[in-house]
Amino acid sequence: MFKHKKWFGTSAFVLIVVALAACAAPAAPTVAPAPTPAPAPTVAPVPATAAPASPTVAPAPTTAPAAGPIVITDALGRAVKFDKLPQRIVLTGRAFFMIIDALYLFPEATARVVGLPDTTQSKNDFFAALDPNYASKFIIRGSNEAGPEQIAPVNPDVVITKSVNASRLGKSLEQVNIPVVYVDFETPEQYSRDLAILGQLLGNPERAKMIDAYFKTQVERVNAKIKNLKDADKPRVLLLQYSEKSGTVAFSIPPVEWMQTLIVEMAGGRSIWRENAGKGGWSVVNLEQIAAWNPDQVYIVFYGGDPKDAIAKIKADPKWQALKAVKENKVFGFPGDFYTWDQPDTRWGLGLIWLAAKTHPALFGDVNINQEIARFYALYGFDQAAIRSKVTPLLVGDLK
Q: How much is the pTM?
């Protein structure tokens, strides 16, 4: 919708690390040639499933690791073989928090994650709230793209990273026999596939299926109510990222293939920025273009704070006041807690149901966002007391 630990910089040290890694790290995984990955398909409807009446308590970790070797096909189509289930997992690379948020939906993660970066999108530390052993983890300081010199001393059984990191980061790790498994977690389809990959790595495929069912249920709940809508019944929606630097305000639109655009359309809105969207990142748009679109509804994402602050400034601007969405009071702040709900973090299911309720309030009048929050955080084992103490104080956006 993203300080350095001092390391000796000499070539001799790097050679020593590489040599040690070759001896101490697990045997290199057997990797089959990677086929060219196909684009992620459009999410297909799933059978109708009623939303659970109450949150499900997270299960205890699996007690007995699977015996014998396992072979995992990762997001790049590589078959990666392990002699046994990896017990020491390190996360690294760009947007790593999207992976670790998914990983911690599995109870095994607390014991098996041994290293991760300290660079996150949020000032509020979700990982510390999730993991009672967080203080004992190896924290890679100052960079979320640590290389072999930082990671090899942790002696990982596997490093998990996003596939966009393969050519630079992943290659350097594999060259010193550190096994790497790639995931994406960018679209609903990829979520389903990548949860299955994590389930294999952790020896808990049934848990992966249960988590996947949560996301598919969210999609089907929305689709069941909007699937028969005609285009004329769908509001013209504009989702914008608001940013402010040195007093200068900018508005940006997401790419067509990003989760932000996908959930707007899945929620029954027409994403009016499609023809102007760029590739690979947010594209800045000016107020003249926004006025030309004159959307029915506007959704503001503000990664730097509470979107209500941004909306207050928007509504005070005479140029914005001429827009239909402002006149009709349909400018909404996208919610968030530790992270915002618009992006391909585990909260996208929350974002989808909230967005559907705002886009089509007459169809989704039964949505209780507090119940949705409770249902989601139950996946992490949070009860109502934990939600009140850890989550509620961080909530921002238009939740009513």
A: 0.82
